[in-house]
């Protein structure tokens, strides 16, 4: 299923990106791994090489549009079969100042949008350019691209305004672009999952309903991407609840959301 293909993964130093690299790393496999954290990236590279994969890695910030384009084009010589855009961050409200909670900081908001949305687009567009020039495989595909959105993109959550906004925009853009790209032989998939047991959520100070292991998340993501699904969602009950809540008047959903521990100041890290 994964024989002699070249796969590029961003956010490969930890979490889902690292999990995908470890699952895909095997003899005959060519992995191109990127992340801004060099130490974790080295760990992932060594693990995949130990499993027999050929690995090239680059310490890179996905927010750097030019560097990302140069890197992806450079590493795509020959062919680029699959891309997993996993780089992203999360975070919540800052500490309260006085009686009333403080709104999300501007710097935090901009960092979230630049990383989760623009960083993902900096991965998507160069990959699209490369794949459009490739010959179709035996399945009629030129390549497959998977974008890591979130269930949070289905709701307007007061505890994580910019995270919800960045993931909503990424999911909508991915789903809306997919039909056009498919005509060119490129399959585009959006992943909208709930809480995954990764280092990114370790500092959350609240119960995380529907928490799944990284291995389970990787399995679901791979299955959906390989099948060419438009959107991969899990857990289903959490997705259903989020979509249902989004149909209600905002002031009504706020009565519930604003009482949740995750919507409180310092409920999750404020970068």
From TrEMBL:
It holds the Pfam family adh_short. SUPFAM superfamilies: NAD(P)-binding Rossmann-fold domains (SSF51735). Keywords: Oxidoreductase. InterPro entries: NAD(P)-bd_dom_sf (IPR036291), Sc_DH/Rdtase_CS (IPR020904), SDR_fam (IPR002347). Belongs to the short-chain dehydrogenases/reductases (SDR) family. This is Oxidoreductase. It comes from Gluconobacter thailandicus NBRC 3257.
